Amino acid sequence: MSVATQGYTREEIRQFVHEYYLQPHGSKSVWLASRSVADWTFRQWRKMVFEGDLDRTLIPRDHGDMARTHGERSALERARAKKIADHQSEVEQLKGRIRELEGTNDALGKAIGLLHGLNVPEPDAKPTNDTKSS
Fold first, then answer.
1. ∠ CA 44-81-53 to the nearest 5 degrees?
2. Residue 47: what pLDDT?
3. How many CB atoms lie under 10 A from the CB of residue 51?
4. Cα distance between residue 72 and residue 46, in whole Å
5. Separation in Å, CA 76 to CA 4, 37, 52
6. What residues in the chain have per-residue pLDDT under 70?
7. Nearest CA to 14 among 62, 56, 48, 64?
8. Is 26 buried (19+), middle (13-18) or exposed (0-12) by CB count in 10 A?
9. Which among 86, 47, 87 is positioned nearest to 67, based on CA atoms?
10. 3-state secondary structure at position 69
11. Which of 46, 66, 67, 119 is in the most buried spot, having the most CB atoms within 10 Å?
12. Tell me, what's the pLDDT at 110?
C-alpha cells in the first residue's frame, strides 16, 4: 500500500517519527496535535518507518504478530538517540584533533621557513685577485 508524504522528505518523516517516540509518556498526543499532521497520516508514516519501505513510500499489510510493540519501538528510539549522541561526541573529538593538528602544521611551517631563512647562501665575495688592476 502506498502512502502520500504531503511534501515531506523521507528524512523529515523519519525524524518526525523518531521525535514522537522521544516524547515523555502522556505528552505524545499533545506533541502530535501541535504539529499539524493528522493522526491517520502519522500512523501511516509510523508503519512506513518501522515496518515498511519508506524509500518507496510503502507500508505492509496488517500481519498481526509481525508488528513491533510500543516498548520495542521506544527501545529502538533510545538506542538511536544514544547512537546519534555518541556520533556527535566523536565528531566533536575529531574536530578538536583537527584543530590541534592544524596548529601543529602551522608551527612546523613557520619553523621550516625560519630554517630556510637561516640557510640562505650568502652573496659571493669579490675575488681577491682583481684581473683589471694587474
1. 30
2. 76
3. 15
4. 13
5. 25, 23, 16
6. 1-6, 51-70, 120, 122-123, 127, 130-134
7. 48
8. exposed
9. 47
10. coil
11. 46
12. 92
The grid cell for 33 is 496535535
What is the model's pTM? 0.42
The C-alpha cell at 125 is 665575495
The residue with cell 499533545 is: 30
Residue 65 phi, psi dihedral angles, 5° rounding: -65, -20
Helix, strand, coil % (nearest 5) of the chain? 60, 0, 35
The 10 Å Cβ neighbour count of residue 86 is 10
CA distances to 129, 131, 134 from 126, in Å? 9, 12, 16
C-beta of residue 59 within 8 angstroms of C-beta of residue 3: yes
